[in-house]
Amino acid sequence: MSNNLTKPETTMERRDVLKLLGLGTVAAATGSIISGDALATPDAAAKLISKLSGTSSYKSGKITLKMPEIAENGATVPLTIRVDSPMTAGNYVKSIHVAADKNPNPEVASFHLTPASGRAEVSTRMRLAKTQNVIAVAVMSDGSVHRVSRTVKVTIGGCGG
Amino acid sequence: MAKKPRIKLPKSVSQGQVIQIKTLIPHKMETGQRKNKKGGKIPRFIINKVEATFNGKPVVTADLHPAVSANPYFAFHARVTESGTFKFVWTDDKGGKVTTSKKISVK
Questions:
Q1: Residue B40 DSSP symbol
Q2: Which is it for the CA torsion A99, A105, A108, A111, positive or negative?
């Protein structure tokens, strides 16, 4: 399940994130919009994605994540995920998983598709607590997993508090 | 529980056509993160599942988490090979279900 190439990088990130979390707690104490609860970390989001997709080696391409670059209101940010697939019985997209790395919880949504879907494209609207990365992976019927991520800047957070 | 959902899809299509289906259900999608005036947590209460079937066969299922916005909007596609009925089921955290269906005919 682990990938040697990405390991050192994630430990670095974790260290940085812990520092950030420390700052976050101070901010919360001084009346920030973010509640004192711990936010998800990029590490947690990466773990979730690898748990859902059953792998930690991803291919790029084939999957596109359409989201605004700047979201004025984090309470409803539209997103569309499209995967390039013929959607036939022998070659289709089994599922699409979405995670966010700085929301209170990394889970966003999972979509389970069938050949009857015809086109692997789903849209929904999500909450973003602050500026962060949104990650989407597509699990294909042949077992390969394609990954895409995007940074979305948020002006007003959308997770209450 | 929730109010009436809204569904948008064409009434008739040509055979084998891939159509987009848009769904929206009014629901506050309480995240469980918010606090009330007394400082207590407002418990989580969301729609956690949306299922779509066509003539009893599964088309798409979505597992939703609190990060999905209030009044969850969900759009997807379906290939229509015969006339029939799309059935949609939304399930909330307390097991409540909202079911609706839409007929579609092949020209």
A1: P
A2: positive
Domain with residue B65: its CATH number is 2.60.40.10
Judge whether A143 is closer than 8 Å to chain B, CB to CB. Answer: no
Inter-chain CB pairs, A–B, below 8 Å: 113
| Residue B1 in domain | no
Q: How much is the pTM? A: 0.81
**Which of B35, B76, B87 to mutate against chain A (most A CBs within 10 Å)?**
B76
Number of domains in chain B: 1
Question: Between β-strands A145-156 and A70-73, what pairing exists: parallel, antiparallel or unpaired?
Answer: parallel
Question: pLDDT of A30-47, one tens digit each?
Answer: 333 444 456 778 889 999
Question: Distance, in angstroms, between A13 CA and closest chain B CA?
Answer: 23
Is B65 within 8 Å of A109 (Cβ atoms)?
A: yes
CATH numbers and ranges of domains, chain A: 7-156 (2.60.40.2470)
HSE at residue A50, side-chain half, CA atoms within 13 A, is: 13
pLDDT tens figures, A109-142: 999 999 999 999 999 999 999 999 999 999 999 9
Distance from the Cα of B55 to chain A's closest Cα (Å) equals 11
Which residue of chain A comes nearest to B60, CA vs CA?
A113
Range of the domain at B54: 6-106
Contacts of B18 in chain A (CB under 8 A): 118-119
Most B CBs within 10 Å, among A127, A130, A133, to test the B interface: A127
